[in-house]
Each structure stands twice: as C-alpha cells, then as structure tokens.
Amino acid sequence: MSVPINFNVKSVAASISPTAGSPLHDHFRRRADAAEVQPRILHPLENEGLRLLVLENISQEAVAAFRSQGYHVDHYTKAMGEDELIEKIGSYHGIGIRSKTKITKRVIQAAKKLLVIGCFCIGTNQVDLQAASRAGIPVFNSPFSNSRSVAELVMSELVTLSRQLFERAHELRNGIWNKQSKNCWEIRGKTLGIVGYGHIGSQLSVLAEAFGMRVLFYDVLNIMPLGQARQVESLNALLSESDFVTLHVPELPETINMISRDQLSQMKEGSYLINNARGKVVDIPALVESLQSKHLAGAAIDVFPHEPSANGDPFDDQLNPWASTLRKLPNVILTPHIGGSTEEAQRMIGQEVSSYVSRYLGSGSSISAVNFPEVDLRVNTSDSIIRICHVHKNQPGVLKQVNDALSPYNVEKQYSDSKGEIAYVMADISNVSTSDWHALKDRINSTDSNILTRFLA
C-alpha cells in the first residue's frame, strides 16, 4: 500500500491575544485565524535549485525579490548577444531582460531548462513569442507601469521643441549668447495629435489639456475620450490639423513605417513630430527630408530601428545609415530610448514582472502571460497536495489522457485553458506517494501531446 508524502510544511498563523470566551470573541478569533493562514510556497519535487539569468540592469528590487525566495540569480548590467546567450542559457530556468536582449528561436532551442521569460519593459517584440509558446515557456511583461514616465517625457519635448531649448542650451554651452523669440512658441492654444490612445496616450491627453492644448487622437478602436479630447476618423485628418504629432503605437506589420513620405506631407508646415513608441514606426530617411526642407520645424526621437546594445557603444552610420545626418539637424531631440527610464517606472516594472515570474515558478500561475493560456489556481494550505502543471499541444483527447492518469487519486482542483496551438492544465491532487508521482510524471510525459510538465509541492 502506498504511503502519502509528508512534506513537513506548516501553516503560519498569527497568535491571538487572550480574550473572554464569549461567542462574539470566538467569532472574531476564528475570522482572524482564517485571515492569517498563508498559502504554502510550492517547490519542484525534483528539488533542483532554480537559477535565473537577469540582464540589462534590471531593478535591484526585482533581483532582491528573486533572491529572497531562494532563487539563484546571476545579474548582469549589459545585454547579451545571441551567441553569448546561447552559450550561457542552458543552465537557467528563467531569464529577465529589457528591450536590447533578443530571445530568438535559436536561443530558445538552446535553453533546455528554461521555464519562463520576464520582459522588464512594455514590449515583447524582442522575444520570438511563437517559439517560446511552442516550447511551453510563458512570457510576461509590464505594459503599463511606465506610462506616466513616457507621458511626462512627451510634455517636456513639446516645450523644448516649441521654444528651441535644445539649440539655445547647446549654443550657450559653447560660449554663444543667442537670445531670440523668432519661431519660439507657447504650447498653450496649440493642437496636439495623439496616435494611439492607450494608457500613455490618454494620460498625455490629460496633461496636455492642463497646459491649455487642444487634443485630437486617432486610434483603430473607438475609445471614450478623457476631458475635451476628440477622436478623429483617420490618421490623415489628425496629421493635417495638428501642430504636434506624437506616436504611441506598438510595432506591428501594419504600423511599420506608418509615418512615411505621404503622411509627413499631410502634416502642417512648421509642425513637429515626436516618436517615443517603436523605432520602425517612422521612416527616418523620409523624416530627414521633411526636416531638411523645413516642412517640419523639429522632431523628437527616443526609439530607433537599430539601437546600440550597451551604454557607450556608438550611434553611427554603421548602426543606421542616416545616423550622422540626423545628428546634425537643428531642433531635433535625440534620446537613447529613455521614455520609461525613471526610478519610479523601473521600480514598478521590477515589482510587477518579478511577481509574475515568481508566481509562475512557485505556483504555476500564468495570469498576464502574453503568449500563453492564462490559468490560475489558489494554492492549497494542505501539505498533502501535489500540483501538476502540464503544458501540452492543443489537440483533442489530451484531457481524457490526463484525467485517466489522475483517476486513482483525489483531484482537489483542476483548471484548463488554451491559446492557439498551446494548452495548459493545472491540477491539485492529494495522497500521492513518492513512487506514485514518479510513475504519474512518466505517464504524462510519455503522451505525444506533452510539451512540458512540472510537479510542485
């Protein structure tokens, strides 16, 4: 007869001060006891220490949070290239990156132990999401934590461009006093056109109105505006009415070069373009032409098609063939992808993404994954429960196979979901012996639909 595994994990409860033995006191004591019981922290049954590779100077608070949970963390301040990553990633169960490190299909194929990818930034286009999901690896990001930081940067760029602050500051640093008001404007009363009215665009809308600006926006969805902002029916309508145009869209096939020669020609003469979205959204050579011809009065660019991999690396014509020309143009603000680079934003991103990664590693929860079915189960406080996290191909008959394998045991909870080619089922089962769970894992792993299976307890 099999003997249940005893994991020797105790529930934690706060001590209660002695009280009178009245029913009312008993009632509140029972409520306090229930509120203080904490879910168990689950661990892989194989007892292999989980190792995380964290790159690109991710928030130290995130690194500390990982280490506090017992993970081994190797932290590097720089990005890694594909070859270096392939050489190192084989021994890690999780990786944290920002925007410069590319997780390609080759990297994922070399990551034999990898369970999770955390993108400590807004976007995930630096990860081959399809290759990750096919390998059973969820990808998490933080799409909204730096929204305020980006919105404030745009506001500063509006004033800097309209007042030619960059030019005047550069001249004075070179010993030239050049006080002038020609072609310098207040932004009050001007029209701001926002392309993409999501979390950043909508916050920017409120800030701009506080400065006395008129706000138009264009979005592929019909969105309720904030304040007095007004949605327009087409991109060209926004371009033709706006004194400033700012872009806040993701990089998708339909947004690559969405601002090119035709769109720039629709903009008002003497207007300004701001791009803090994605580097491939703007056709930079076409923008250079519009600036050189004086059709546009200035631009601010924070993102580029190709960016240096580390601080100190050159931003030159070898990286982007137009770089030296762009750098010489007057009233053009060039910044090194700093839209979300504030202490507040990085702290919030670190907290959010590290919590997603830790929850997936510790309990199997895939809530907020961008490429993966979103599944979650409350962690049971009992120490006799084993959790099965089974990532499999989304095909008929899989749940029947899984449930047949689980039929000798009591299934306490079970939840399944699918997304595209991938499905994910979590199940809590009780009274499983050591020999049982080894046999159960072998049985589930042997199915032709299996991608990745973990047992936590």
Automatic annotation (TrEMBL):
Matching InterPro entries: ACT-like_dom_sf (IPR045865), D-2-hydroxyacid_DH (IPR050857), D-isomer_2_OHA_DH_cat_dom (IPR006139), D-isomer_DH_CS (IPR029753), D-isomer_DH_CS1 (IPR029752), D-isomer_DH_NAD-bd (IPR006140), NAD(P)-bd_dom_sf (IPR036291)
Keyword Transport appears in the UniProt entry: no
Pathway(s): Amino-acid biosynthesis
Gene3D superfamilies: 3.30.70.260, NAD(P)-binding Rossmann-like Domain (3.40.50.720)
Pfam families to which the protein is assigned, alphabetical: 2-Hacid_dh, 2-Hacid_dh_C
This protein's UniProt keywords: Amino-acid biosynthesis, NAD, Oxidoreductase
Domain D-isomer specific 2-hydroxyacid dehydrogenase catalytic: 53-371
Any GO MF annotation of the entry: (S)-2-hydroxyglutarate dehydrogenase activity
GO terms under biological process: L-serine biosynthetic process
Keyword match Amino-acid biosynthesis: yes
D-isomer specific 2-hydroxyacid dehydrogenase NAD-binding domain ranges (all copies): 158-339
Family: Belongs to the D-isomer specific 2-hydroxyacid dehydrogenase family.
NCBIfam families, per the entry: PRK11790.1
Official protein name in the record: Phosphoglycerate dehydrogenase
Organism of origin: Coprinopsis marcescibilis (Agaric fungus)
